TrEMBL record:
Organism of provenance: Rhizobium rhizoryzae
Name of the protein described by the UniProt record: Imelysin-like domain-containing protein
Residue span(s) of domain Imelysin-like: 51-345
GO cellular component terms given for this protein: cell envelope
Span of the signal peptide: 1-24
Subcellular location: Cell envelope
Length: 371
């Protein structure tokens, strides 16, 4: 059961949205006409309002992270460690906003996993990072050679352990320690990947051109419907990842067991901030793309309802105890986790079923769980 005020507010909000448009929905059941002009405008906004600025921000934040790691390695101190950790937090949250876009160049050359290898249910990455730190393998201290190693040791997950895990006190005790130089190489590696993604999406004759111009000449989308389907797929799969990989990786409703140390970034306290930024990224895509412009007036309730769930989920993620042990053991905290799972399922349904049908996608087709 969720907190009563939140439950009442969410239910009332959805009721009012639905009730206001019920008659119109019945009178206008057919989807709007998907014109080429509307589709190209949608894809233009997706690129210019969401994808390009998202990767640019990530590149900027990883650049700052590299600078702070260099400063820490050169002049180790508690203050410089705190600055490096703050820069890590900003880079990680920037990634959370744009990682919802699990298509395109980020899926090439294992870039997605190289930036963040997660989930890691068997602890493979953790053990590999520990092995590197134990062996002091110098090939892991340069971005060029680090990039050829396992994806598990070259991204943000590995850097979190360097900055917050067992032995991180070494970072303030020795100038240019192996641990710090390894962390610096990780930051440089992720920065390089971020720059590659910026270049790929900013190339005026590259992928962005094909995304903005669906049709026979496009290598991305041969038809307008394919382009709209891609955008909707991003929304659905990102919402599923929030439920499956960010929450259910450590907590499942009704289960007698929970695994707080399997949560993403539990050491740094960023588990729930990452969820909030995932949701902010989704909200930016919904509004920045102007997907509402493709709907009939009688269908606007769908986007309004989606906004209600965004607000509920973000509020819940802000309110849950950052201490994962407490979050999965205290009844009031568990109720909020249960509410997040419930709301995320409803959000997926709104994207997959209601918005999909409103956009006129093929009846019976489902994005959910890769179908």
């Amino acid at each position: 059961m969720r907190t009563s005020v939140l439950s009442i507010g969410l239910a009332l909000g959805l009721f009012l949205f639905a009730a206001a448009d019920a008659g119109a929905q019945d009178a206008n059941p057919s989807p709007p006409v998907l014109t080429h002009e509307r589709t190209t405008a949608l894809m233009e906004r997706v690129i210019t309002n969401v994808i390009q600025p998202g990767y640019r921000d990530f590149s900027e934040k990883t650049g700052l992270l590299s600078d702070r790691m260099m400063q820490l390695c050169t002049v180790p101190s508690a203050n410089n460690l705190a600055q490096a950790q703050a820069a890590f937090s900003e880079a990680a949250k920037s990634w959370a906003r744009i990682e919802i876009v699990r298509v395109g160049p980020v899926l090439e050359k294992n870039r997605f996993e190289r930036i963040l290898f997660y989930p890691d249910k068997k602890g493979l990455g953790f053990r590999q990072v520990q092995a590197l730190l134990s062996s002091s393998d110098e090939t892991a201290t340069a971005p060029d050679t680090l990039s050829s190693k396992s994806v598990a040791v070259q991204g943000l997950g590995a850097l979190e352990f360097v900055l917050y895990g067992t032995g991180s006190d070494q970072l303030t005790a020795q100038t240019k320690s192996y641990r710090c130089r390894y962390g610096l190489a990780i930051a440089g590696n992720v920065q390089h990947i971020a720059m590659e993604l910026v270049q790929a999406w900013d190339d005026p004759d590259g992928l962005s051109k094909d995304w903005k111009n669906p049709g026979p000449q496009s290598s991305a989308f041969r038809q307008d419907q394919e382009a709209v389907t891609e955008v909707l797929g991003i929304l659905v799969h990102a919402a599923e990842a929030l439920r499956d990989q960010r929450i259910e990786s450590f907590y499942k409703s009704g289960s007698s067991q929970s695994f707080p140390k399997q949560a993403l970034f539990w050491r740094s306290g960023l588990t729930f901030p990452m969820m909030r930024e995932n949701l902010e990224g989704l909200r930016q895509l919904v509004h920045g793309s102007g997907i509402k412009e493709l709907l009939k007036p009688s269908q606007i309730w769908i986007v309004n309802s989606i906004d209600v769930y965004f607000k509920s989920l973000i509020t819940l993620a802000q309110d849950i105890d950052a201490d994962l042990e407490a979050a999965v053991s205290k009844p009031q905290q568990k109720a909020k986790l249960d509410a997040m799972l419930s709301d995320s399922r409803d959000l997926i349904s709104l994207f997959n079923d209601d918005l999909g049908q409103a956009l006129g996608l093929t009846t019976g087709f489902s994005f959910s769980d890769g179908d």
